[in-house]
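Record format v2
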Amino acid sequence: MDCTCSKNSIEFYKNFQLQNFNTLKMSSIADIAFFPKSESEMCSIFKMYDKVHILGWGSNTLFSSLGVREPVVITKKMSDISFRKDIVEVEAGASVQKLSVEAYNNSLSGFEFLIGIPASLGGAVAMNAGAHEQSISDTIICARVYDTLEKKVLTFSKDELVFSYRNSIIKQNYPRYVVLSAKFQLQKKDKLEIKKRMDENTEFRKRVQPSLVLPNLGSVFKNPVLPDGEKLSAGMLVDKCGLKGFHIGNAGVWENHGNFVINYHNCTSSDYTNVIKKMYDSVKEKFNIELECEIVYAGQLSEFEDKVWKQLKKN
Ligand code: EPU
């Protein structure tokens, strides 16, 4: 990896290995990676390039084994969290786990569900992260976003963000809008009560979800909702297809939950893509349900991967 430290003074690296910057531990080389430290540095990168890939904590992106030609902008160094009474303003690269703990330290409730989620605030807002009957959309007041089409900063109110299950205007228009920061209204509560809920959530995750010791990208598919409103578990559907433990190359469906795919040992993006194709095809064939993928793909696509990801994106 060549290290270079100034492009209009913004920290950047050429031929940057992304393996330690995604929770799947996928080996992938980015031609260039930027580490902006402020909103103004971030905006000046957008002015230099038409298309970039924004990377928070890398818990939702499958990077290509063939590398990434477009610039990767890593938000981790833009991570201020500032409380004013029960309002908190958070920059895009802040860890949501840290946010959860800091809210607890301030006796504020609303972020208990974020404990244990390996994500950045920007990613969590874009996908309206949620768990245990709480979600980002419950407490958000507004978000500052960069519009890469109009090349300007906008403020979206909660209504303008058009949230639904694991979805928002930001995700719907991906990659047009980039989250810069967001403001939340939390609720004063007894610390013991907040701690109890956080402990319960941690215990649940330990029991039913893989830790990052088994590198993974979280849930592969959204839980489908049938036309009559019935909600199903994607993991349960994959499980009923008998795919828990199913492997291709070094990627495989986790033995304990059908909606997680693990990198067992230096898997390739093609191994991972092959496994999720098998999950998608099997559920479609057995239940006539087309699952919707939560993961995004970044980088050079092989012919096979291009075909599969086009099919997955159609939904
Ligand atoms: N189940 C199976 N087999 C499996 C997996 C699940 O039979 O292989 C059954 C479980 O026994 C349970 C039901 O399906 O009765 C639902 O499973 P679980 O409680 O694990 O919940 P989930 O639907 O898999 C959802 C969210 C998680 C969130 C948890 C807790 C999605 C796709 N998943 O999981 O969110 O943490 O509820 O609230 O919305 C994420 O989105 O990345 C995520 C991890």
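The two ends are 37 Å apart (CA to CA).
The chain has three domains: 2-74, 81-206, 234-313.
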